[in-house]
Design goal:
168 residues; 7 helices; 78% helix
Length: 168
């Protein structure tokens, strides 16, 4: 990432992505943290620092995965739950992230043009945040928003994809 704008975009989108993971963790573990929320949020910020610095200094897939999976797995120990539940939380979050990344890279490839929104992670972070919101409101708390139907949610997901296509 040689361009300063792209680096800044990456850092901001990474902060937003890790915030979405913080929200997912709270929803997945149903807020059963062992420590106060402020401490948890501060430790997730530390995760953001480790991940961002690791990716900016050593931009490799292995380092990126290492600085994502290991700190996040360690952060799951801030919540009550079995070891298996913690492993599943890490698996779900990264399965969703990898699927979103693969989808966006495919769009970029089909459009045959490098897009800063995709390459810097802005679109990925936004879609991860959207996926977390969908999980929290529709899967975990169905009684809060029963009026949202699955077809409507699919339409909501097409909005950011359509925006990316229009920008091109």
């Amino acid at each position: 990432m040689t361009d300063h704008f792209e680096t800044l975009s990456y850092v901001i989108s990474n902060l937003f992505r890790i915030y979405a993971m913080y929200l997912f963790s709270n929803a997945y573990f149903r807020g059963q943290g062992k420590v106060k929320n402020g401490v948890t949020l501060a430790l997730f910020f530390g995760y953001f620092i480790v991940n961002s610095v690791g990716n900016l200094i050593y931009p490799s897939t292995f380092i990126n995965m290492l600085t994502n999976v290991v700190p996040y797995f360690l952060l799951t120990f801030l919540y009550r739950g079995s070891f298996l539940k913690k492993v599943i939380a890490v698996f779900i979050s990264y399965a969703v992230s990898l699927c979103i990344d693969a989808f966006l890279v495919s769009i970029e490839y089909i459009m045959d043009d490098k897009n800063i929104i995709i390459s810097s992670g802005i679109a990925t972070s936004f879609l991860i945040f959207l996926a977390e919101r969908i999980y929290e409101y529709c899967v975990d708390k169905k009684e809060i928003y029963p009026e949202l139907r699955r077809k409507q949610l699919l339409l909501i997901l097409t909005i950011p994809i359509g925006s990316i296509v229009i920008v091109q």
